[in-house]
Every structure is written in C-alpha cells, then in structure tokens.
Amino acid sequence: MSSKLPINNAQTITDFLSLEPHQISEESSEESYKFAFDDEAFLARRETIGIRFELELLKPEILLSEHGIDHTITVFGSTRFVSHEKALEMEKSAQTADEKAKANKALLHSRYYESAREFGAMVAQYNNVQTEDSNKLHICTGGGPGIMEAANRGAFEAGDKTIGFNISLPREQHPNPYISPGLSFRFHYFALRKMHFMLRARAIVAFPGGFGSFDELFEVLTLMQTKKVTRFPVILIGKEFWSQMVHFKEMIEFGVIDEGDMKVIHFAETAEEAWAIIRNHYQLS
Predict the structure, then answer these.
(1) Looking at the 3D structure of the chain, how many domains does it have?
(2) Domain extent at residue 21
(3) For the chain, percent of residues with pLDDT exceeding 70
(4) What is the pLDDT of residue 149?
C-alpha cells in the first residue's frame, strides 16, 4: 500500500499565489536572465522560503524604525465584536428571531469594542504630551476588524500613530481604516507576524476572543515562562470570561504551571484599569 503522507503540510506561497509549475520553471532566457531580486517566480519557489522569512522580518523592522516607533502596546481580541452604534443598527433592522438574538449578543459584546477604543485613545493622549519618541507607546494590533479595529480607531481618532500587522487568509482579511499611512503591514507567515507583535511590545492587552487570541496570548506567556523575553504586563480584560475559559488556579494546583508564572497576568474590567497597570509598571508620568 502506497503512503499517503503529505509532501508538505503548509500552504506554500505558490499555492497562495495560485502559480502553476510552468510559471516558475523559467525555461526561457528572458526569464532566467532576470535579476534574482526582480524575479517574482524565483522568489515564490519553495527553496527561497528562508529569504521570504528574512524579508517579512526586515521590512516592518526598517519602516517602524524610520517612523520612530520604539515601544508598542499589542492589543488582541475577537474580530467579531462591533461598535455600540453598529450593534444598535443591527437591533433596529433585526426581523427574525435569529437576527434579534444576534443583535442582542452584538449589543452585549459592544462594550468590549468601546473599551478597546477608549484604551487606544488613552494611550494616544499620553503620547500627545511626550516630546521624545523613546517615551511613547503606540497601539499595535493585527490590523483587522473587531477589537483590533477598535484599538486602532481610538488611537487614530486621538491623532496618534497606530500600527496594523495584517495576515493573508483564505477569506482575505482587509486592513481596518484606522491604521496610520505607512504603518499597515501584510504578512504571509504567522510566525513572523507574531515576532513583530513581540519585538517592541511593552504590554499585552487581551480582550475576549477566539482561537487566534488564545494562540497569541499563550505564545506570549510561554515566551515569558521560558525567559525568552523580558517579563512585562499581560492584561486580560474581563475576568469572568478569562476565568471561565482558562482555569489558571486549577493549572497551578495540578502542577502544570507555577504560581510565579501568574505574576505577569493582571485582570482588568475597564480601559482605565488596564492603562493604570501599564502606567504604574513603567512609572509613567
């Protein structure tokens, strides 16, 4: 019986770009004569994956430095939450029982959107009175909708620079409109995107979310637990949600984490509480 083991279990860049074998074969002299850095077909080959990793690391690093961005606060959370205004519109237009239930849930969760928006504005207001870039903390998100949009929006509306690290997905995720010009980035590789979430992060603020939010949160906690990064505040908004989803106390009692691992985690209910934790940690004026 022949093996059914896959040759590759990841979506390659050629898969993503829908390139056929003949498009990367470069059989003509016109194709082979191109400069390597100007040859998209060559750069899309499986063998050049290391180069693409390096480019996805290097491009945002250079541009963020050129914008004078040294420190960020990375905000995670659900893509599904909408603003209170949008939730009211959904409630008003709801006709069926299913639509009404969806609108009620949107209204309930809109408080997180508004809280993230308020948090972004608070950080921006702090930056607005700083004279040195080295003292500023900029809002950084995954660049998409929901909580990401809300945090970017709050900072953007308050006149601050705001960053979005978007990711290519099968159902394309478009950047939200509240990311500063020149600071909206697109990644193909989740690993490189996660690196940039952490490279300048001085705090993580995590609102209720799904698989993506949990993935990003636990990667951060693992890096701190294993001392791969300097410990900084990890703030979980909504203690009831996080305590129901993750039984931290039981994990300690079971012996899979230490009590000391929990020292980086802070629970908060409001934007004000979250910002106060960060201000106190860094003794910001």
Answers:
(1) 2
(2) 13-44
(3) 94
(4) 98
Q: Are residues 132 and 37 in the same domain?
A: no
Residue 1's pLDDT band (boundaries 50, 70, 90)? low
User: What is the Cα–Cα distance from 123 to 175, expressed in whole angstroms?
Assistant: 21
- On whether both 82 and 182 belong to a single domain, the answer is yes
pLDDT of residue 171: 66
Place of tokens 């193909």: 188
Count of other CB atoms within 10 angstroms of residue 279: 14
CB–CB of 139/72 below 8 Å?
Answer: yes
Angle at 200 between CA 260 and CA 165, to 5 degrees: 110
68 plus 120 within the same structural domain: yes
User: What would you report as the CA-atom Rg of the chain, rounded to the nearest whole angstrom?
Assistant: 22
Same domain? 90 vs 133: yes
Residue-averaged pLDDT of the chain: 92
Instruction: Tell me which residue of 123, 152, 145, 154 sits closest to 136, measured CA to CA.
Output: 123
Q: What DSSP state is assigned to residue 68? A: T
Query: What is the pTM assigned to this prediction?
Result: 0.90
C-beta neighbour count of 86 within 10 angstroms: 15
